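--- STAGE predict ---
source: upstream dedup step, 1 unique chain passed
mode: sequence only
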Amino acid sequence: MKFELVEIVTKDKLVHQGIVHIPQKHGETAVVWVHGLTGTFYSNTKLMELFAGECGKRGLAFGAFHTRGHDYVASAHRLDSRNEKGFVYETVGAGVEHFPDCVKDIDAMVTFFTDLGFTKVILVGNSTGANKVCFYAGTHPDPRVFGVVLSGSMSDRYSATDEETNRKHQALMEQKIRDGKGDELLTGFDFFPLTPKRWMSLLATGSPEDVFNYRDQAGALTTFSKIKTPLLVMFGGSDEHADRPIEEIRQAFDVHAKSSAYTSVVVEDADHGFTGKEQEFVSIVVKWAASL
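--- STAGE serialize ---
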């Protein structure tokens, strides 16, 4: 499968790399993959090849791009005409990103394809990418986005360590932020280094990132409920990050969905990343996207 290496530029001038596959004969629809926590556009080459292949068979374009949350901590270019190089270096990565800025990343992805003449963009968010796509679709309605797919939509807060430890960690993070150390990079609080502000975004109740709060009695799935475009939610039947049976989680999504055309699917025996079930996962998603 041949991909073209491309770059996109966000409205705040951050440069992201990505790959696209545009079949010779194509329609007006493009599918965009949004990677998960600490991921990259090339994290799962098998999945990317399957998506490009299945999309190509149906005349759909496909693309996958970095977000500013790629890798643990990384460097990116921010365009700056005042610098003789034309850019400055920016520290990015999952450990330091400001979650609401994902809107700028996704907007740039959508713009890339609409600038090429594609009129229907389908966003496919995986894991934390699903949080981002849900936040984008639920808070920034975009007429260019014709459909949304959320996969691995588990709550980081529910799947974290025990609640007592979580409370202690949150108290520490809140104190550090009060002390002006909210951007200090810490280790030992997750599988990757992160700042107190980033910890709060991932694991504190009610943060903008806490969109999959399906267990909460009040305000559950509020952002999710605001998505009006066609919506497909994909679950792995054996998702290791699930805090309860998948069917219970699925039911919560089903109850709160307000989309104009909503579907949920469980891929039996699939883990969070659909390992070994990639073909089944991709086939379902691309068939659904092509039907819109």
